[in-house]
């Protein structure tokens, strides 16, 4: 469980530092709008998203088992976090996040990092697409500038409410969302290593400001962002509250483990390296405890930001630590600028993030899967969207293991004939 930074620092030179500084700054420019947008979509505040990027992002890089992993709030948590806040309040989320951190520390000590192999891939793909669908639909109100007092959390009632409010569509908000989305796609294709997200969201927000359009900003909805990190805070919870939050904590820990280890495996392929799974779980545990102490959100390894780090030249954990410090500097000295970002621009960013999460380039391949695997993917997807993420994962994993067992029994019978 030795952190990768202890292996990379011996012999660390000036050229590596310059490369990591450049990569860390680039990733920070991507992380800022994403952290804000994910926090808002989760039912939190922009400040809570930025705090998570700083605290959890620093700890995941400093203690993690991957050389290039970037941590912070991610889209996979939006559905869970939103549900926990709605049911138990933000204090309940903080407790669940801290408990998830403890669970991840225990998993690391038990060397459970390799257990991800037992989660069927169709289950992972199914709930990832399902989460993407939920994220995208949750952003339609802001992207379309609709006047809707409250958007239902459930998928079908949400669609019905949006349809009822169709006459309130705001053309200015739609124009800003379309402009921002188009810029994100164009910059991603023309300059993949350029931090196009912050540029696109900034330009889209700037157009709304210059034209004095009636488009809501972060400051309009949430007020001014605080400068710097809050003071860490912890209260010993009652045992009954711990028991109440345990299911949420287990789900957060499960998602953090899966996404961080998947992200680390993607990074391994990009830099031809091998991560240390148990060290990664240890870092995720520490990061979620740290984030909860500072009032942040659950965190995990972020695949998109990790890939951005690699493309920008980051090759050691120093780049991830620099990314967290740059976000802290901007939070401390440029918070008013972040408050001017337009909500439709952030909505467009999240809709495109959801599209990328769903990995549409793989859809045709899913149709070629064996029927049992395709069914497993679809069942998980539908349950994620229409029921509950915990139910979807539980049913998907159980069904997947049953199908895997049945396949093995069938193979043995064929061999014995």
From TrEMBL:
Topology versus the membrane: Multi-pass membrane protein
GO biological processes: transmembrane transport
UniProt KW Ribonucleoprotein keyword: no
InterPro entries tied to this protein: SLC26A/SulP_dom, SLC26A/SulP_fam
UniProt main location, coarse: membrane
Pfam family, one: Sulfate_transp
One GO location term (cellular component): membrane
Entry keyword set: Membrane, Transmembrane, Transmembrane helix
Subcellular location: Membrane
Spans traversing the lipid bilayer: 21-41, 47-63, 93-110, 122-140, 169-187, 194-211, 245-267, 325-355, 375-403
Domain named SLC26A/SulP transporter: residues: 17-378
Designated name of the protein: Sulfate permease, SulP family
Upper lineage: Bacteria, Pseudomonadati, Pseudomonadota, Alphaproteobacteria, Rhodobacterales
